[in-house]
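agent: user wants the full assembly modeled, not chains individually. Plan: 1) parse entity lines 2) check alphabet per entity 3) run joint structure prediction 4) return tokens. Steps 1-2 passed, two entities, 624 residues total. Proceeding.
--- entities ---
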Amino acid sequence: MSETTPLRPNLSLAERAYRIRRNALRMGAVQGQGYIAQALGVADILAVSYFHALTYRPNEPQWEGRDRFLLSIGHYAIALYAALIEAGVLPEEELETYGSDDSRLPMSGMAAYTPGMEITGGSLGQGLAIAVGMALALKRKASRSRVYCLFSDGELDEGAVWEAAMSAGSFKLDNLIGVVDVNYMQADGPSRGVLDFEPLAPKFEAFGWFVQRVDGNDIDALVAAFDAARHGDAPGPRIVLCDTKMAKGVPFLEARERNHFLRVEPDEWSLALAALDAGRPA
Amino acid sequence: MMRDKYKRPAISADASGKRLTTSAMIASIAGPDQPTRSAPFGHALAALAERRPDIVGLTADLSKYTDLHIFAKAHPDRFYQMGMAEQLLMGAAAGMAREGFTPFVTTYAVFATRRAYDFICMAIAEEMLPVKIVCALPGLTTGYGPSHQATEDLAIFRGMPNLTIIDPCDALDIEQATPAIASHPGPVYLRLLRGNVPVVLDRYDYRFEIGRAKRLRAGADVLVIASGLMTMRALEAADMLAAEGVSVAVLHSPTIKPLDEAAILEEAEREGRPVIVAENHSVIGGLGEAVAGLLMRNGARNRFRQIGLPDAFLDAGALPTLHDRYGLSAGAVAKTIREWLR
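--- prediction returned ---
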């Protein structure tokens, strides 16, 4: 929960997720393309993170007492910008600059560009190792803050993820919460055909993690899983494996195949927004 | 250059001299009568950490082989054993640096450069984080062969923006460089000499400063620009050549990047002496080419030559044998200079 009262405090998490999706679609329309399917897919995870789980100050992104939220998968920057705008960390009007020259919102997330972007992701598979170092450092400082690291199933191909996973278990980093977007899609096609990472939950269990696997587009399930990850008494790191649907919330895009880097025709953005609005929570 | 595969050595029963054998992983580079100090980096870091609570030490299963065990013993709660996982090592160091600590991370130069490059580049250098990467076995300082000989570490790292690169000569250099790099705001790569490290620079009016090359010896006939252990070798070679009436100047340039361009240009332009760069590194991409580029960009007309390792995977063997074979021993340096000037 935001330490300071968030803008519009009475909105439901479902409404937050809708607004995050809407912000993402508006940014996608600026660029005409992008990782919009991933952004729509993780919007519920980000809504639960920024409006239920995380402690932070929207007007003080570097506040020492904040929970750290690391976006390992820099390609998802559009999704995090959408959430940071909704959280009041970024002003809504900057949405118009997404991916433009001199913008603070570049296509791939970089810490030096954007308030609230903790690390430079994008070279995939690095985030969890950085998260291990931050979690160790927070323990050194006797801080109660947690480190959240959002990474994708495609990143599981990278060996360094498993170096970090083993390390987090070895150091018993109970202040580290991994969140994996399992959308079964990566650059060359369906993830399990690129490099099969299943069965996933037993792998992390074997590495010493407290593992939960949930429907990543079910807000109630996410809230329960994040609460168990935050407040459970597991002696080590925690991970929430989130099965998500690419392009969730815009049915005609959900149905589009090979949507890793979604091409949306110019006239389709307004259709996508309309489709999203049609499914807006009551 | 490829070795002859499975080439058998000539073995004679009446060997007049015993062959040298490959020593332990890290052979001392000290000569038989050379004064040395033990683990100068480890002791310097342990002492520095007394007044710098932000310093932490991380290693990838090589604390004993990088002298970090001295620090670990003095400050056990600030030592992190990350296991044989160099990408994790660099990523975790980046995370600790983000939280306000100054991590010193150690491994071998081959592993930092070849295995963890992307993590150093994106998690550390791009963010200008103050991670100090201290690596043993730079260049040709082990007889174990290419798996452990980082003959191209400078070539790999020189292209990385924001990274400061230090190649110290001796124990004194390392002791002075340790606090200097700790206070430097960005990332640093230091080529570590460990174990019993020779003490050479105490005979000169010298103090280590990041970014500064210093003249250790004046000479009218040729200017040697050197870094790392090759400064030591150049000084020895200069003594040998002085006895033959050849006057050799030695400029020690322990900072490979950013290069002390002013000092190097001033020395090179003075009297137009021939310039020879001596380095414990491949002739590709190291100090030699850095100096050559500097001289060329500035219109210098000095005769120019490099002493360095060939562009090849080098042999295994005893370190003195290999330093003779590849031209890094003091005798080989003197010979190269003598023949060049003839």
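agent: reporting back. Chain A has ten helices and nine strands. Chain A has one domain: 13-278.
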